TrEMBL record:
Name the record gives this protein: methylmalonate-semialdehyde dehydrogenase (CoA acylating)
EC number: 1.2.1.27
Record carries keyword GTP-binding: no
Cell cycle keyword on record: no
Length: 494
């Protein structure tokens, strides 16, 4: 059986691993490959390589870095379908969605191509006689990027193009469930002319992550995953003296006001609720409908749900399987709990009928969900949409603001004033107005509030550049050739 191994110093590692994980094709339920798990010795080897490479890469000219980034951009663009096929084979999402995530990742590469402009400092001439002050930003050193299963290409690409453009070296630790996209991207970096050792991939589980979090050679950690692990990564990494940005889980609310275009809202709820089988950190899972339009909107949603084809993502389905059997069963157990706790099950995805042993669960809709039910309090991360009926904007806003997560949210309305008030009052990092999945463009920054983010910096955009660099301010005096004499006085502005 094929074994996916690490990528260190521009080549596949030939070290024999003592532990492995299984990689599944979620549409067939079959194990298709294994992945080597790194121990602390292997992580140390990768950090040593990245530390050595940093000494050269940090001195590479901005022109050289930009040329490599442009070449990488062209290669990823040309290989979009190949990368998408790798993603679908291990994650299960449909091919068009997999291609979409590569496109969103490419936007960050394109943003990073502007690094000469992004790294420009400030300059103040003559702050005192003959004295100038200027600021510069420099890379921090080897950085680790630890990513979740749900976007095996896009999430690492939120970080590594910016990190590399800023002069850092990188170790990616992809999800052990779908590690192949990172390996493919590693080979494209090499083809693009990136020096060996600047981009490395180590695979594994907690053991590899812990080794990265505590290794003194790693200077910064970008993590994306579930909230308990994000909190752990933030606490452990910062305790080891590193800067950490740890993006966590989500429970995204879509608020529909009574004046909204209900067809637009129904389409949005379907796309954002069931796209990628709900395994998106920006998926909508709580639909907050302000009465009296709930019945009408639910009718439009159920009509659309009946047309969603669940099946193999390579065979023209609209929605693929869930990532693993364990995850599928966990999501199904939330459906069981919703019924037990008294919510009205309008569409039951447990009844979906797809041939084969894939990890199937169809689109599911609950009505009359109450805030104390576990289908509302918890992140489910599956194709389960919960409707909460409320009677006013204020009630809807209170629900969103009282939730532990604050990643994304959306409001649907024709009232510009209401939308403006919502964007001002809501305690969430990314907001859509008549837009269901408001993932910011790469030149803005991505990140949530509350339990959706631990740390101060969001991903990419200027916050990404700041995260991957440290500032310096230089005060310099070059004496005018006409200068003469000694002055032992305390420096003062004149
Ligand atoms: P996860 O937390 O299980 O795993 C994320 C990473 O952490 C993986 O690389 C995994 O190997 C590692 N890991 C797992 N357990 C660990 C442990 N005990 N100690 C150290 N490392 C550990 O997350 P997942 O299931 O792969 O991804 C889904 C989660 O990611 C969801 O909660 C989703 O909301 C979240 N997510 C958030 C964002 C965001 O932008 N906020 C984006 C994508 C996904």
């Amino acid at each position: 059986m094929k074994e996916t191994t690490h990528w260190i110093n521009g080549q596949f590692s030939n070290q024999r691993a003592s532990r492995h994980g299984d990689i599944y094709n979620p549409a067939t339920g079959q194990v298709t490959a294994t992945v080597a798990f790194a121990d602390s010795t292997l992580v140390d080897e990768a950090v040593t390589v990245a530390t050595k490479a940093f000494q050269e890469w940090r001195h590479s000219s901005l022109t050289k870095r930009t040329q490599v980034l442009f070449a990488f951009r062209e290669l990823v663009h040309a290989n979009k379908k190949n990368i998408a096929a790798l993603i679908t084979a291990e994650h299960g999402k449909v091919l068009s969605d997999a291609e979409g995530e590569v496109t969103r990742g490419l936007e960050v590469v394109e943003f990073a191509c502007g690094i000469p402009h992004l790294l420009k400092g400030g300059f103040s001439e003559e702050v005192s006689t003959g004295v100038d002050v200027y600021s510069i930003r420099q890379g921090v050193g080897p950085v680790a990027i630890i990513s979740p299963f749900n976007f095996p290409a896009m999430v690492p690409m939120w970080f590594f193009p910016v990190a590399i453009a800023c002069g850092n070296t990188v170790i990616v630790k992809p999800s052990e469930k779908d590690p192949s996209a990172s390996m493919f991207l590693a080979q494209l970096w090499k083809e693009a002319g990136l020096p060996d050792g600047v981009f490395n991939v180590v695979h594994g589980d907690k053991e590899a992550v812990d080794a990265l979090l505590t290794h003194p050679g790693i200077k910064a950690i970008s993590f994306v995953g579930s909230t308990p692990i994000a909190r752990y990564v933030y606490e452990t990494g910062t305790k080891s003296g590193k800067r950490v940005q740890a993006l966590g889980g989500a429970k995204n609310h879509m608020v529909v006001l009574p004046d909204a275009d209900l067809d637009l809202a129904a389409d949005a709820a379907i796309n954002a609720g069931f796209g990628s089988a709900g395994e998106r950190c920006m998926a909508i899972s709580a639909l907050v409908i302000v009465e009296p339009v709930a019945d009408a909107l639910i009718a439009k949603i159920t009509e659309r749900m009946a047309k969603i084809k669940t099946g193999d993502g390579t065979q023209g389905a609209d929605m693929g399987p869930l990532v693993t059997r364990v995850h599928r069963d966990k999501v199904a157990s939330y459906v069981d709990a919703g019924v037990e706790q008294g919510a009205t099950l309008v569409v039951d995805g447990r009844l979906v009928n797809v041939a084969g042993d894939g990890f199937w669960l169809g689109p599911t809709l609950f009505d009359h969900v109450k805030p104390e039910m576990s289908i509302y309090t918890d992140e489910i991360f599956g194709p389960v949409l919960s409707v909460i009926r409320v009677n006013s904007y204020d009630e809807a806003l209170a629900l969103v603001n009282n939730h532990q997560y604050g990643n994304g949210t959306a409001i649907f309305t024709h009232d510009g004033g209401a939308a403006r008030r919502f964007q001002n009052e809501v305690e969430v990092g990314m907001i859509g107005i008549n837009v269901p999945i408001p993932v910011p463009m790469a030149y803005f920054s991505f990140g949530g509030w509350k339990n959706s983010l631990f740390g101060d910096s969001h991903a990419h955009g200027t916050e990404g550049v700041h995260f991957f660099t440290r500032g310096k301010v230089v005060t310099s005096r070059w004496l005018d050739p006409s200068h003469g004499g000694i002055n032992l006085g305390f420096p003062q502005n004149s």
